[in-house]
Amino acid sequence: KTLHIYDTRSELEDRWRKMFSLECDFVGQALAWGPTIVGGLAYLAYSGAKVIWIMEIRTLEETWEAILRIPRDGNVRDLDWNADGLLAAGIDDGTVSIIDLAYLQSGIAVNEKDYNWQRQALTCFTEIRRNRG
């Protein structure tokens, strides 16, 4: 399975440009772009199966890399990234996960940071579960 990501800034489809392709082990079910592009950086969240992948796209270099893998207990059906950097993930078991990824908007590429930044996503995490009682 291959996920193709296009630059769709133009309203004309024939001007859309493929940015990159990802080989996936699962069918993608949700995709959300991060809120801003800072310093030539863009962020993309995509999911399917029981994982959310965060991609960093370096638009000036035209390179990308997977920077964060967030496993979930159920299949991720929906993603939405707000302007403050909070990523909401709707899981098929009725759970909503809120992940604070605002630190990605610093304008510094992940490959230029020390690895303490990854701990922020793990500690800035909230789950809301449906009451089944």
What descriptors fit this protein?
4-stranded antiparallel beta sheet, mainly beta, single chain, 1 helix, 133 residues, 10 strands
Structure, explained:
By secondary structure, the protein is mostly beta strands. The chain has one helix and ten strands. The chain has a four-stranded antiparallel beta sheet, with no helix packed on it. Strands 7-8-9-10 form a four-stranded antiparallel beta sheet. The protein is globular. The N and C termini lie far apart (39 Å). The relative contact order is 0.16. The model has no long low-confidence stretch (mean pLDDT 82).
Sheet having the most strands: 4 strands, antiparallel
Structural class: mainly beta
Mean pLDDT across the residues is: 82
Order of helices and strands: EEEEEEEEEHE
Question: How many E strands?
Answer: 10
In percent terms, what proportion of residues is strand? over 45%
Low-confidence stretches: none
Q: Rounded to an integer, what's the Rg over CA atoms?
A: 15 Å
The percentage helix is: under 10%
Terminal residue distance? 39 Å
What does the overall shape look like? globular
Supply the number of helical segments. 1
Strand order of the largest sheet: 3-4-5-6
